[in-house]
Amino acid sequence: MKTNKTLTSIAIIVALTLPVALLAAPETTTDKPSISATQTVQIVTTVESIDYETRMVTLKGPEGNLETVKAERTPNLEEVEVGDQVNVEYMRNLTIEVTENDGAQPGQGVMTASAVNKPGEVPSGMEMVTTITTATVQQIDLEGNTFKLNMPGGVVEQFTARNPENLKRAAVGDLVVITTTEAIAAYMVEVPTE
């Protein structure tokens, strides 16, 4: 329903205006460390104004905050009216896995998927972006509880381990796979008919 920039704007506003639940999955039982965490937010906004010519829509959040977005990919914007309610759902998942390296080099790839309803259907849409980044363990400092990763582009970054025991389960040269998935969906809230 919205462009990537618009969806990101809504997601940021949602994330900043509401409390969120951060659910961390327990570490797996493999020899190498891994972790996964998911954050989700769901709110109902109200359409405050619509400029059908420019396709700009102003939404009002539950706290009264306003956000103007461009609905350029919405084929049935004419069906949306001031006062309509739009449900916005945002999800972000982060997974980090350490594996033995078979010679892979640091790199990054991005995959996107999006969909909008057809003309004549209730206006709605979704977008999902998955980014996979690989890095290699360059250094492990057990005493300092830190490790360095060789990131894509040759950049070396230092991190502090949340769980010092994980440093003992990793080795210099291991591959670290970081997968981030962000998804946002926006759809009209259906009003029951009498």
Structure description:
The chain is mostly beta strands. The protein has one domain. The chain has two helices and ten strands, in the order H-E-E-E-E-E-E-E-E-E-H-E. Strands 1, 2, 3, 4, 5, 6, 7, 8, 9 and 10 form a ten-stranded antiparallel sheet that branches. Strand 8 and strand 9 form a beta hairpin. The protein is elongated and about 60 Å long. The two termini are 28 Å apart.
Keywords:
194 residues; mainly beta; 10-stranded antiparallel β-sheet; 2 helices; 52% strand; elongated; disordered N terminus
In short:
The chain has 2 helices and 10 strands, in the order αβββββββββαβ. By secondary structure, the protein is mostly beta strands. Strands 1, 2, 3, 4, 5, 6, 7, 8, 9 and 10 form a 10-stranded antiparallel β-sheet that branches.
How would you summarize the topology of this molecule?
Layout: H1 4-17, E1 21-25, E2 34-51, E3 56-60, E4 66-70, E5 85-99, E6 107-116, E7 124-141, E8 146-150, E9 156-160, H2 164-168, E10 175-188
Antiparallel strand pairs: 1-2, 2-3, 2-5, 3-4, 5-10, 6-7, 7-8, 7-10, 8-9
Number of domains: 1
First-to-last CA distance: 28 Å
Radius of gyration: 21 Å
Element string (H = helix, E = strand): HEEEEEEEEEHE
**Rounded average pLDDT:** 83
Low-confidence spans: 1-29
Q: How large a portion of the residues is in β-strands, by DSSP E?
A: over 45%
Largest sheet: 10 strands, antiparallel
The class by helix and strand makeup works out as mainly beta
Helical stretch tally: 2
Helix content: under 10%
Overall strand count: 10
- What characteristic shape results from the CA principal axes? elongated
